[in-house]
Amino acid sequence: MASSLNRELGELIAAKLASGALPSTVPTSIIRSMGAGLRCSACDVSIGLDQIETECTFADGQWLRLHLECFREWRQQRAP
Questions:
Q1: Residue 34, SS3?
Q2: Is the pLDDT at 4 greater than 80, yes or no?
Q3: 52-57/63-67 β-pairing
Q4: What is the domain partition of the chain in residue ranges?
Q5: CA dist., res. 47 & res. 32, Å (int)
Q6: pLDDT band at 3 (very low <50, low <70, confident <90, very high)
């Protein structure tokens, strides 16, 4: 079951990278903190108060808020 969820997450992030909904550039800043219940930019699920949230900002002012696992998958897929 976990591998099925990982595959689905990978496919979702790949589709968002291809469409431009997620950037493929390197962030200028990465900050980790506990979640605040806000929506993840990758999977669209709220990041729980007990989960690690990764916030990325970019040179153009864009930002992402991601679950730690979503961040890892996004980082792996956007890497050249």
A1: strand
A2: no
A3: antiparallel
A4: 2-78
A5: 12
A6: low
